[in-house]
Amino acid sequence: MPSVPTAASVGNSWFTLHRLTTGDRSVMAALRSIVEPNKGKLRGPAARVPFDTIVGRTIAPDGVTFREDQVAGIPGWWCEPREVLPGAAILHLHGGWFNWGSAAAYRNLVGHIARSASAIAFVPDYRLAPEHPFPAAIEDAQASLRGLAERGIRRIAVTGDSAGGNLALSLLSLAAASPVIGVRPLGAAVLSPVTDLALSGSSWESRAQADPYFVKEQAEGLVHGYLNGHDPRDPIASPLYASLSGLPPIRVYVGDDEVLLADSQQFVERAGAARVDARLEVWEGMPHGFVGGVGQIEAAAEALQAMGNFLHSRLAPGA
């Protein structure tokens, strides 16, 4: 794969590099001293409680209310800002390597996304592996999208982070190929998506030291629990291998210090080759999940603003 674009590439139509600020440099140094001793240690279902505890530390957004609900029989949480675009909604698929995560833990992060986009957002509690392996999660994502359409919501954008980014991008391809879903999302904005479950991206090596959270052996175990013997290059399991032509605009946001960096770059390159309006934004010095540090990390606020601007532009009437 081509090398990750450098500072000289800033200004390319499909790629933007955001420089590390002095303030964030200090914050990242402090964060690394806390998290790196536990690098690679979260494994299997036993990690669900500590994972949710970490994710749930995202500060609650002002002006957003939350309520539990079911959409098409899938439980989850609504995130509802005070001022929203009428008739529009975001469907957010949460992260957690398909084995962890919950709508409740992610609702604060998604609330920030919803507020930045001025749109309500639903976070489904899709079924988790290994108890419910592939394709349970993507089936629940499809059901959630159909359920929103059945409620009369026709302008829908899809968002997701990490494993949820995988599901969001796969959902785009499935919706484009199958009218059964009933609605095609107007766009997708994803954070550090896992696009290649074969884990073949070069950043698994080039960012192995820089990434403070994950090691390849850990990811292999989690992916094995999700796939349960299924082919990792199945286009529905790994959106990198899907047919990408005809997809709506896509924005991908990722940190430069992530083992998943190549997953983002390769997907955007393939989407661009298929004439999709796809763009990649990379934040220098940022690890996986940095957007959850909104209120402390300058890059998080910047990424949320970029994400919100894009989503609002896609969901606004007449877009």
Would you spell out the secondary-structure blueprint of this structure?
Elements: E1 15-18, H1 22-35, H2 48-55, E2 64-71, E3 74-81, E4 88-93, H3 103-117, E5 120-124, H4 136-150, E6 155-161, H5 163-177, E7 188-191, H6 203-206, H7 216-227, E8 250-255, H8 261-273, E9 278-283, H9 298-315
Parallel strand pairs: 1-9, 4-5, 4-6, 6-7, 7-8, 8-9
Antiparallel strand pairs: 2-3, 3-5
Helix pairs in contact: 3-9, 4-5
Structural class computed from helices and strand pairing? alpha/beta
Determine the CATH superfamily. Alpha/Beta hydrolase fold, catalytic domain
Please report which band the strand proportion falls in: under 5%, 5-15%, 15-25%, 25-35%, 35-45% or over 45%: 15-25%
Described by the principal axes of the CA atoms, the overall outline is globular
What is the ordering of alpha helices and beta strands? EHHEEEHEHEHEHHEHEH
Please state how the strands of the largest beta sheet are arranged side by side: 1-9-8-7-6-4-5-3-2
Query: Average pLDDT across residues?
Result: 94
CATH topology: Rossmann fold
CATH architectural category: 3-Layer(aba) Sandwich
From the N-terminal CA to the C-terminal CA, the straight-line distance is 35 Å
**CATH class type:** Alpha Beta
**Oligomer classification:** single chain
Q: What composes the largest sheet?
A: 9 strands, mixed
Q: Percent range for helical residues?
A: 25-40%
Count of folded domains: 1
Rg result = 18 Å
Low-confidence residue ranges: 1-11
